[in-house]
């Protein structure tokens, strides 16, 4: 017969249900799920060796948790408090790290490094880094912002966002902008292709073969783009591009064009053309707010997928690549989905202005 001391008492209904719930948890073999399985297996009878073989654990592990359960029941399966190594960093040192990071800068520098601050406080650099992580501090990072000084900021935001979220009936909306000075860059050495474990490599220096300007009009409803290449981006070039938009837009529809505040967009030659073409109406984004123009998102795709890693041996190569990419985009075009309402944007700008206008600023 087995040793009766190794057999747990009969489980109560509450204990059995609790153990079964713990046993079904997806935890590691060292967690409470395995401990519950050990006790349940012991309750079915059998020696430590038999239970250990059945569950694939060490015999000593079965003995430990069986004995703990006999002594303390369910409470015995919990982890006992572990004192660990005494703290070597005091609360005062933690506070000093946070306060110095937020309110001081080292002499001759703009921000603290972990080693400089560690030497100042008298702790290790890794301890400084752990404190920074705990408090969400990243003194090596910085971000930029620009609050638009446009006196018509709110009106323009409501106008542009309204065209995105609720475009007028019997109308087409285009987000329009220029991408000037696109460079035809050729690397001074052949590009080395990607290999397993090695990324594509290219020389850092290049030869420039000229530049070209790209006018683009993104149909916000379909995602299709009207593009036009030009040697410059003068007022007459913008007028010619408006004519191209007017020609390609479906007859009978009003044409709403979203553009920025570039002086060429407001020149007399453009104004005269708009008077002669009343179905075309310009809507201007707020000053310093190109982020609100959806065509900028398309330009980001153009940079990432066509220009950033492109190699162009001549200006003609660049023009061909741009025309081909626009055609490829239009073959599978999809619109960008605008989600923020005008009120949400204005509220966020107000919150940010409140933060930067406080006493600390």
TrEMBL record:
Record-linked Pfam families: DDE_3, HTH_32
Gene3D superfamilies xref list: Ribonuclease H-like superfamily/Ribonuclease H (3.30.420.10)
Domain Tc1-like transposase DDE per the UniProt entry, residue ranges: 192-319
Entries under InterPro entries matching the protein: Homeodomain-like_sf, MscS-like_channel, RNaseH-like_sf, RNaseH_sf, Tc1-like_DDE_dom, Transpos_IS630-like
Name of the protein described by the UniProt record: IS630 family transposase
Highest taxon, organism lineage: Bacteria
């Amino acid at each position: 017969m087995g040793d009766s001391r190794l057999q747990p008492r009969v489980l109560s209904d509450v204990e059995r249900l609790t153990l079964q719930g713990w046993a079904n948890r997806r935890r590691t073999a060292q967690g409470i799920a395995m401990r519950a399985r050990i006790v349940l297996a012991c309750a079915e009878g059998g020696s430590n060796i038999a239970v250990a073989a059945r569950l694939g654990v060490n015999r000593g592990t079965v003995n430990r948790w069986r004995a703990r359960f006999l002594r303390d029941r369910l409470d015995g399966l919990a982890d006992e408090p572990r004192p660990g190594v005494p703290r070597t960093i005091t609360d005062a040192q933690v506070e000093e790290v946070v306060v110095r990071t937020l309110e001081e800068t080292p002499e001759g520098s703009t921000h603290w490094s972990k080693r400089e601050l560690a030497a100042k406080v008298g702790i290790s650099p890794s301890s400084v880094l752990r404190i920074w992580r705990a408090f969400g501090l990243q003194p090596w990072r910085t971000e930029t912002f620009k609050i638009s000084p446009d006196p018509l900021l709110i009106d323009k935001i409501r106008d542009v966002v309204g065209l995105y979220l609720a475009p007028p009936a019997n109308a087409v909306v285009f987000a329009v902008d220029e991408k000037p000075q696109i460079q035809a860059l050729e690397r001074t050495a052949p590009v080395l292709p990607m290999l397993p474990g090695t990324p594509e490599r290219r020389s850092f220096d290049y030869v420039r073969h000229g530049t070209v300007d790209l006018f683009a009009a993104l149909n916000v409803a379909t995602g299709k783009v009207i593009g036009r290449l030009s040697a410059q981006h003068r007022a007459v070039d913008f007028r010619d591009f408006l004519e191209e938009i007017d020609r390609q837009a479906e007859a009978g529809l009003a044409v709403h064009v979203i553009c920025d505040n570039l002086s060429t967009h407001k020149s007399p030659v453009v104004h005269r053309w708009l008077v002669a073409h009343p179905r075309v109406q310009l809507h201007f984004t707020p000053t310093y707010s190109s982020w609100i123009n959806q065509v900028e998102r398309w330009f980001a795709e153009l940079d990432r997928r066509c220009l950033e890693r492109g190699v162009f041996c001549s200006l003609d190569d660049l023009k061909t690549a741009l025309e081909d990419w626009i055609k490829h985009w239009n073959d599978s075009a999809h619109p960008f989905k605008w989600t923020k309402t005008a009120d949400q944007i204005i509220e966020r700008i107000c919150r940010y202005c409140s933060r930067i206008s406080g006493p600390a600023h």
